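Appendix B. Chain record.
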Amino acid sequence: MIDNELLTAEELNVVIANGTTNMAILTDPQQKIIWVNKAFTDVTGYTLQDCKGRKPSFLQNHLKNQPSLKRIREALKVPEPVKELIENFTKDGKKYWALVEITPLYDENGELKSFLSLQTDLTQQMKLRAESEEIKNQLRAVFDHTTVSHVMFSAKYEVLQFNNMANQLMHEICQCPLIKGQRIQWPTELMEKTFSKYFDKAWLSQQPVMIEKEVDLGAKMQWLRMEYHPILNDKGSIQSLSFQVIDIDTIKRAEQQEREQKQVLYGIADIYSHQIRGPVASIQGLMQLLDGTELGEHNNEVYQKLVISVEKLEKAINNTVHMAHLAS
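Structure tokens predicted for this chain:
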């Protein structure tokens, strides 16, 4: 327990109010420790006996060059209240984060009597922040290296965020890089109006809008699918718009090739159906005229073979036409 005679009424009030929830350190004007509370010992492992007469800076171990420590030292020279986030170490060497709030305390004559340092353990919060930052960095890495172009816009068409693929694509289209806080400098008025048209449609309806268009990239024409996705906040209000550009050129070229192949198959089916089936039908008609006619043993044998061959040919033609129609 702290010796009450060491504290003024002001000091006692602060310790009583905060001692149960915060670590508390009381130092003399030379910043040497004269008291610590139970919360301090619970977190750090240091008792009053361990640290009495030492400066709190021993808690920083080898991390003496933290920028926040420099600001604390400058404030204590004045002296004036200061609040900073610092890294400390426990007695067994574990690092912990503490939000430190130091207040100079004065006696009834206005003379500096002590410094009261209240420290909140923020280790868990900082750990969660670090994990969140790591996830954010991982997502950013995926965002930057995806093959889909992403640009985030404000309501005024200003660029908020973009990935590498988007910057590369827009440089090909507009001959200039994307710049945060600025609008895209479209090379033609038509492109600007087209973009604004679908942007406004998605923004006002708060529904995704998608279009497919063949775009002139200078060196070549390329099919792109452009998607406008409204981004809503927790209250359901639109706060930004995600513009995604997906390369569908390979798909479109494949579809075109498939259409051309179907046209070829249609042509093949037409040839077999009319230009070849017609002569076969004529042959079948002539053969029907010979049915019942005495042809002689040799000619009859030839005739029967011819009937079989024509039937096979007709069947092959029908199968070819059928397959051509199925493929088309």
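Further analysis of this model is presented in Appendix C.
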